[in-house]
Write a structure and sequence with these properties.
The complex is a heterodimer of chains A (about 375) and B (about 600). Chain A contains 16 helices and two strands. In chain A, strands 1-2 form a two-stranded antiparallel ribbon. In chain A, helix 2 runs antiparallel to helix 3. The longest helix of chain A has about 35 residues. With about 600 residues, chain B is of the alpha+beta class. In chain B, strands 2, 3, 4, 5 and 10 form a five-stranded mixed β-sheet that branches. A five-stranded antiparallel β-sheet of chain B has the order 12-11-19-18-17. A three-stranded antiparallel β-sheet of chain B has the order 1-8-9. The chains are: A mainly alpha (about 375), B alpha+beta (about 600). At the A-B interface, helix 7, helix 9, helix 12, helix 13 and helix 14 of A face helix 1 and helix 2 of B.
Chain lengths: ~375, ~600
């Protein structure tokens, strides 16, 4: 399926050339395909114009692709070594925006870097996966199965998740918790502990509910009963379903989505871009995108299994899970299966930080694959 | 190392479960897509169309109303409106200020504009001023650079070229009210106007036409994107009336400041040539919607401009009723053409004296002379011989006492009393004296001007039972008009009497006579008291009419026909509190008949 240079079994260092030839180009092709669909849909969202979104998105994707290649070439051991540093740095950034927000400079989720706005919460999605992979890489199964052994990773998860929740960014907080949950499950944490945490969550739910902003509470309530507010929050999901359903099997045609182009569909260039795609290209187009996402997932998993290191496996699975959660939460949300939580469809929805963070994830997954035969010590 | 192997195995085992879970969830997404896009596709396609398609009714142009000569009486006029579109101007207030410099805009109007602007989306044009003149439109267009966001919109609005002269015939259109039966979707269209009175109301269905449909694609904010489909409606049909605009105008003008009514008929067909009630109102103002102030001034006016006196006003016919009494007398043999009565100026019934208007009496006179001089004593005696039943019966034959039913609203039926009526109404038997005063058209008798015109036409057309109408009467319909059961010979006697009223010295309408190529008119005047003249007043001298307040003055009446041989036109004129039939009503009737004769399309040209 893909060709790469067979590297020596015990060869612990690869040349740049070897690394480049080891990049899975099929994987990259899927990514490019998904991003291209995104650019095409953004072109349509602007009623057949490259501005303001499609061109920007293309440029950001190029930048993201560059970052992906760079990360792919970085040794997996290096990535592991800086996991903690990266995590705490990101945590500081999260605290910074938190404090900045609380001292009355407005609820900002980003740090303006001039050329683009960095969202620490997006970085945290990667940092959390890496730090947990590093932690469990160094733990024994015994430690993992002990209560004491999961206190640290739990704290590593809950602290950033809470910070993100208070931003408030319900979608990202949930993604952090789900990703961490999948990692905890994958490394072998016993199911009863999930039960305990779940029970704890249910007990904590009323407190968490009060921490939610009115509009977030609204979204959950509206999800549970969309007719509650057909012109307000429920309007989005009703219009999304009308757009999707009216697209039928083959869609209304490129640039011909009535719901999208007549503005009945809100946020058509961001959260609801999948709806627009489904309206214009029908079920055929929608299923194509889902299959593409499945292929990217399948490849990510196969890379994980080919890796000889526990860190590599876990990092690839964790990051793939992150990607899956984006896709699932976004599509389930626009299809009216879960509340509207504001999670974009990666590589398709308009937005710089998500492209950069998703492409960085793919870069690390590729690095796992390229450095699959490298032995990684317990605390390398 | 063993544990490490286990750790790796656990990871693979558990991560495969996770992978299976992910695939399952993505399959759920696909299933959901199938449910929405295949299973429920039709429903959502319909909802999407409901979202994007907005259907509007196209208002058909209202039918035009013409007079008998094709003169427009009600038409649709381009209505230029100045509108403001908020999104097309950087500053709404500045634009309005600039507009005010060109054209006055009252504070109330400005407030309304601002309110409308707030209530609507920024691309919706809001009306600032309507019915702009050409000059005003030109001014706005000339100053367009200073007026960003101001556009000129063209609509149709109803226009009545004859204004108040036709108001009581044509009526007017106005906004649909709660009471109106909404049997047509057009009535739900904001700003749609329907006939509220007169011909506009009578022929509403015909004039309205039916609405077309316009299907538009709109976006979520209601902005029109494109036209999808257009089905044209059916324009309202034209309505041709029997009215002659020239005669109508003439009649209206003849009244001057007087309050009253006049009806001019074609005696052979019943076609209404002129139908006037004064004072009047401007239907153009009514159609645009009038202010409360104006409405109150119309309602409170003692001359009642809103009342259609030609058919809603009931008056004692006075002496104009004498033809009916004469007719009944001749028919029953109570009087003979050649028999004479003596008028001494008054007569007694028991101890009660009945006076003739001429204090010293007319001496011996026959029926023709009695009509000519309007002798009261002659008709007291005739009525006394006839009794009320015979008079009432004859009155009804000539169209009195019941609605003539031309289709206009508020028509009154007048009143022709008889013994049964009085018993029922007052619980008292009919009195002898009441026969007498009925003989001169006073007492309980009430008639409307249109009934008097009908009566006159039937008296002079050879005894045909014509009915007044605004619709043209073709020959076939004309031949179907029934005869009244009366002898023609006697009818000529009445005509002779009426001719003498105008054309013989001593006739009460002598001064109103005309001779147009040998064509003359006949007629009968009437003056009815609004207040009783007391005995004391009779002795001390009757107060001159001019010295009485308007509302106590006598009503003046005149009925007439022309030309004298083979009459074609009949007229009835009523002037409320007009003092005297011969001084005020007869001149109006005479001039109107003269005009009709002059304008007669069948008249022979004389060198």
């Amino acid at each position: 399926m893909y060709k790469y240079y067979e590297t020596g079994f015990r060869n612990q260092s690869l040349s740049i050339k070897e690394k480049i030839f080891n990049i899975s180009f099929t994987y990259v092709l899927f990514i490019v395909l998904l991003a291209s669909i995104g650019v095409v849909m953004l072109y349509s969202a602007a009623n057949g114009s490259w501005r303001p979104w499609a061109l920007n998105q293309g440029i950001r994707f190029m930048m993201g692709a560059g970052l992906m290649i760079v990360l792919a070439l970085i040794d997996i051991r290096t990535i592991m070594r800086y996991s903690y540093a990266f995590y705490f740095f990101t945590l500081l950034l999260l605290l910074y925006v938190e404090i900045k927000g609380s001292i009355g400079m407005g609820a900002q989720r980003w740090i303006d870097l001039g050329f683009f706005k960095l969202q620490p919460s997006e970085l945290m999605k990667i940092a959390l996966v890496l730090v947990l992979a590093r932690y469990f890489h160094s733990s024994s199964l015994q430690a993992i199965e002990s209560v004491k052994g999961i206190v640290t990773p739990l704290l590593l998860t809950i602290i950033p998740a809470f910070l993100v929740l208070t931003q408030p960014d319900l979608g990202t907080a949930l993604m952090l918790l789900f990703t961490a949950g999948v990692i905890f499950f994958a490394v072998g944490v016993q199911l009863w502990k999930f039960g305990v945490v779940l029970l704890g969550a249910i007990i904590m739910a009323p407190i968490a509910w009060n921490l939610l902003h009115d509009y977030q509470q609204d979204r959950v309530l509206t999800f549970l009963n969309p007719e509650r507010d057909p012109l307000g929050a429920g309007y989005h999901i009703i219009q999304s379903k009308i757009a999707l359903g009216s697209g039928g099997v083959f869609g209304k045609g490129f640039l011909k989505g009535t719901q999208s182009h007549l503005n009945f569909l809100p946020e058509k260039h961001t959260d609801f871009i999948f709806t627009m795609l489904s309206e214009e290209f029908g079920m055929v187009g929608a299923v194509f995108v889902i299959i593409l996402a499945m292929l990217i997932l399948a490849y990510s998993y196969s890379f994980a299994y080919k890796s000889s290191s526990y860190f590599g496996k876990l990092a690839a699975i964790g990051l793939a899970t992150n990607f899956f959660l984006y896709v699932f939460i976004n599509t389930a949300m626009v299809l009216g299966l879960i509340p509207v939580v504001g999670v974009p469809l990666p590589l398709i929805s308009y937005g710089g930080t998500v492209i950069i963070s998703v492409m960085a994830s793919f870069g690390i997954i590729l690095s796992v694959f390229i450095h699959r035969n490298i032995t990684v010590g317990k605390s390398d | 190392m063993n544990r490490d192997n286990d750790k790796g195995k656990v990871l693979i085992h558990r991560s495969l479960i996770v992978a299976a879970g992910k695939i399952f969830l993505l399959l759920v997404i696909i299933a959901r897509l199938y449910y929405l896009q295949v299973y429920q596709a039709d429903r959502y396609k319909m909802l999407a169309d409901e979202n994007r398609i907005s259907t509007r009714l196209l208002i058909p142009p209202r039918g035009i109303i013409y007079d008998r000569n094709g003169e427009m009486l009600a038409t649709n006029r381009q209505n230029f409106q100045a509108m403001i579109v908020a999104e097309q101007t950087p500053n709404v207030q500045e634009t309005l200020n600039a507009f005010k410099k060109i054209m006055p805009l009252s504070e109330a109007e400005e407030e309304r504009v601002k309110k409308d602007l707030k209530r609507n989306r920024s691309f919706v044009p809001i009306k600032i001023k309507e019915n702009l003149t050409w000059e005003e439109v030109a001014k706005i267009q000339l100053n367009a650079p200073e007026l960003p966001g101001i556009i000129i919109d063209e609509g149709l609005s109803r226009y009545y070229p004859y204004g108040e002269k036709m108001a009581h015939v044509i009526g007017y259109v106005s906004s649909v009210s709660e009471k109106d039966i909404k049997d047509d979707p057009l009535l739900e269209v904001p700003g749609f106007k329907i006939g509220k009175s007169g011909i506009e109301k009578l022929f509403e269905k015909k004039l309205r036409g039916s609405g077309g449909n316009l299907k538009l694609e709109v976006n979520a904010f209601g902005r029109i994107m494109k036209e999808i489909e257009r089905t044209d409606g059916i324009p309202g049909e034209r309505v041709d009336l029997t009215i002659d605009a020239r005669l109508q105008s003439k009649a209206f003008d003849l009244f001057g400041e007087e309050s009253g009514a006049a009806v001019l008929l074609d005696v052979n067909t019943g076609e209404i040539l002129a139908f006037v009630s004064t004072p009047s109102f401007d239907p153009n103002v009514m159609a645009q919607g009038l202010s409360t102030e104006m409405w109150n001034s119309l309602v409170n006016d003692e001359k009642k401009p809103l009342s259609n006196k030609a058919l809603a006003g009931q008056y004692s016919p006075g002496s104009t009723f004498k033809m009916i009494v004469a007719r009944a007398g001749l028919e029953s043999g109570a009087i003979k053409p050649e028999s004479r009565s003596f008028c001494a100026g008054k007569m007694f019934l028991g101890s009660h004296a009945f006076h003739c208007w001429k204090e010293h009496g007319h001496g011996y006179i026959d029926v023709v002379e009695a009509l000519q001089h309007s002798c009261d004593i002659f008709f007291y005696e005739t009525a006394q011989k006839l009794g009320i039943e015979k008079i009432a019966e004859m009155s009804r034959r000539f169209g009195l006492g019941s609605k003539v039913d031309v289709g206009l609203e508020n028509e009154k039926s007048g009143l022709i009393p008889d013994k049964a009526w009085k018993l029922k109404r007052f619980g008292e038997p009919w009195q002898q004296g009441e026969n007498l005063i009925s003989g001169i058209g006073q007492g309980y008798i009430l008639t409307t001007p249109i009934q008097l015109a009908t009566m006159t036409a039937r008296l002079v057309n050879g005894g045909y039972e014509i009915k007044p109408t605004f619709s043209k009467v073709n020959d076939e319909a004309k031949n179907k008009i029934k005869r009244i059961n009366v002898s023609t010979a006697n009818l000529d006697l009445i005509k002779e009497g009426m001719y003498n009223v105008v054309n013989k010295p001593g006739g009460t309408a002598w001064r109103s006579q005309f001779d147009y190529n040998g064509q003359r008119m006949g007629g009968k005047t009437g003056t009815t008291q609004v207040r009783r003249i007391s005995m004391k007043e009779r002795q001390t001298g009757v107060i001159a009419q001019e010295d009485l307040p308007w509302k106590y003055r006598n009503h003046a009446l005149f009925v007439g026909y022309a030309p004298q041989d083979n009459p074609k036109y009949a007229v009835a004129v009523l002037v409320e509190h007009g003092r005297g039939g011969s001084t005020v009503a007869a001149p109006i009737g005479g001039k109107l008949l003269l005009e009709a004769v002059k304008l007669d399309p069948t008249k022979k040209t004389v060198d």
